[in-house]
Predict the structure.
Amino acid sequence: MTKGQKARAGPLFLGIECGGTRTTFVITEYEPTRYWQGKIGPANLRLLSDAQLSRHFHAISKITPRPATIAIGMAGARTDADRKRIRRAAAKIWPGIPCYATNDLETALEASDNPAGHPRFRHSRKKPPDRGQSMEGGEADEIATIPRVLVLSGTGSCCFGRARDGTTAQVGGSGHILGDRGSGYEIGLRSMKAVVHYYDCDGAWSGLGQRFLRKLQLNEPDDLIGWVRRAGKDDVAALAVEVFDAWAARDRIASGILEGAAESLARDAVSCAIRLAKPGAPVHFVLAGGVLIQQPPFAKKVTQLLRRLWPNAIVSPLKRESVWGAVELAKR
């Protein structure tokens, strides 16, 4: 699909998801038989000035056709003021085009598929209004008879849910200093603390500690002190892979760390669900993020805990890129 394309079956919908690693965007017709997808650099709302935000959106507008509506989910968007910032910047680049602004949690939740064949889920199949017409709030909303809770664990972590009446709940999302329970960052950090603690107490450097030194190309345990002072959040989170490998090899320290991480994620997800549904009511938990998607045994453990803590839990992984959730929101 190119900017100069003339023959189209209907209006185009632009979904944008801005994250700390990259920005992904998709523009498509209502039925996505044809679509165009692209990626540019990262964008966290709290790290951008208004001018930088406008330039970021301008880069997308230069390589996409003019859409009928837009939905933008951005990392760092938490308040009404944040959402207004996004809409103001979008209005400068796409004047006169309706824009729905939200965070990247809502787009991920919206991208989740319903459990195959589950009778409690229904979707509205109404077509969007013609270009220029307005749509009443909720007219074309998805009709879901049970709440959904996104359980996200990647570099950071957060749980975000929505009930049938539109009520939302969030647990986590406060960043790696105040939050990120069960995230790749916390797994990496807690594991480094653990190997250093056991080294101090026992005088023996553990197998997990040896994995860290090999990964980081360090010579001795004390070298970790200097490394962690310079390390960024992503650097620490990258050590989680070593923890999972050690867990597969039955490492005692790794096992304890990951048991705790799985418990944190499951309990945070249930805390979110309690605010959206009556105890025992069905809830759909959607697993997302690199830690849960790329580590199936860990996702299985979180799933088992969710089903134990919430007996009517329906648990499934997020099977498509969360930018498609932004597309779904744009269609409304």
